[in-house]
Amino acid sequence: MASRVRSIGFLIIAVVVLVVYHPALAVGFVGDDWTFVGAAAATPPLEYLWNYFNPFYQVRWYRPVQGLQYGIEYALFAGNAAPYHLAHILFHLAATCLLFDLTRRITGNWRVGFLGALSFAGLSAYGWSVLWVADVAPLQTLLAILTLWLWWRYLQFSRRSDYVLTFIAFLAALLSKESSVTLPFALVLLESFARKSSTRALIRRYIPFFVTLIGFLLIESAIIQFGAAARAASYAYGIGGHLFSNLIYYLARLVFPWNLPPPFNVGWLIFAALIYFALVWRKRRVALAALGLIGLLAILPFLPNAGAGERYFYSAAMVSAIFLALLFENVCAALPPRRGIVALASASLALIMIGDAGQIADRAASLADLARFNRAPLRAVTQKHPAFPPDTLIYFIDSAVPSADLSGMFYLRYGANGVVSGTDRASPADFAAHSIAYVYYADEQGELREQPVNHADVRIASQLPVVFAPGIRLEGIEIANAQVKRGDAVVLLMYWRATAKIDQDNKIFAHLVNAKGERVDGFDGEPRGGKFPTSQWIPGQLVVDWAILNVADAPAGDYHLEVGLYHAPTMRRLAVLDADGNPVDDKITISPLRILP
Q: What class does CATH assign to 459-596?
């Protein structure tokens, strides 16, 4: 009978997960999904595995299991996004079923396990994690729950095989996402609930887990130091006041997953905490205390992140789901055993699940819209270029879609022939290094414009690098097209570097000047479209900037460009300095530029 009840429970959970998350199958690839899939597509299998498993190749984190996941999925599904989403849904389904069985075993109550798993199955608090292929949380959480499930079996039956399998599952979870670092402590909490052991036995049992954890932390620490700039720029990890605000946010979501707005979330958190501690203290509920601590452990790795996020809540949400199940169970037990009351409580739970399913469907629809928006550059390019010759550079200026994501997108369409780069990369475009190159930029109407690159020679009056006062060096310039037709644009790339901290914000100018010395067109603006003013430049960091000069109204003829900087409040130009630091000019001149009829 018990086996039949479990089977029916698993079947219901499977139906709920598949119904709630089936809209994900229509989402497509979004954001850095393209980066991961593109890397799997562009790299030979052995080299691909070596790159992921070798920590010296990593600059952000050490997640070889995630790389293995993408490698296997690409080998099976290539560029078809729907199976990737289905795999994500199945990870979530497996984690939910394991949670059902683990909770049933720990509490001895199948109903609490089933209701907890049912709540976890469609909880919208972490919906982004399941809908977004690049988020490794579903796989990591599946491995984490598997680790807890196997450990509980080991604690019950003391089988060596369960111990070995637990260690393997823990290692896989650790190598899938660094948030698994708290798993060994969760295992200790489970053991404190299951049985009492001597200190010597505990040390012997947990040494492999904690030695492995220390080794992983050493690798992760080295990667963080080696790739500190890339990691800090993307994720802004650090110690500060945000640790407390993040803790409050996650704890409030733990006790009420649907995100009450402040200050109601803090009020509810205090109220729930008082009830929780009262129950633990008065009724000596060790399991409830262990459950709360496991939830806290699940959110601790995310506290140093500068911004709290819903999708980081995935692992901790299993604790919220179990708390909801315990609340439901205790409410039903405290009320008179009447069918109407049970039916009302069941209907309330069903309404919550329906509401969550609606939110997940809305999020899937918004992600599908975003996926279509992200593919807009690819659609615009493929309309003109069904194919590209080998060694074609496709260069994007100030694209809303990162060039790393575009690179994967274009590789799946054009293979190795199209090399994608853009101004978001801290490196020169190097047009001359490619056989063919195209520059793409958005015009004033937001339409993507294409400018073929020609390699006509230009002369820069001052030898680069040129030093501007105070502490700014212009290290390079590339002009995509020194000869343009009227109606096209002159595309200029500038490579700047601060040699010291800059206290003031300066504007960059690039003026198109005719043979009479008259300015006929020009660009004036803060670096990178105002997104990176000079006062925020980091000494030593390369800044890639651009200027696009529309020559629709300029008569045909020969011109030159004048490039420099000025302090906007005073309109005073920054001086060009010679080797001895003496001012020699206030601009550099680039010529010749020719506008064709």
A: mainly beta
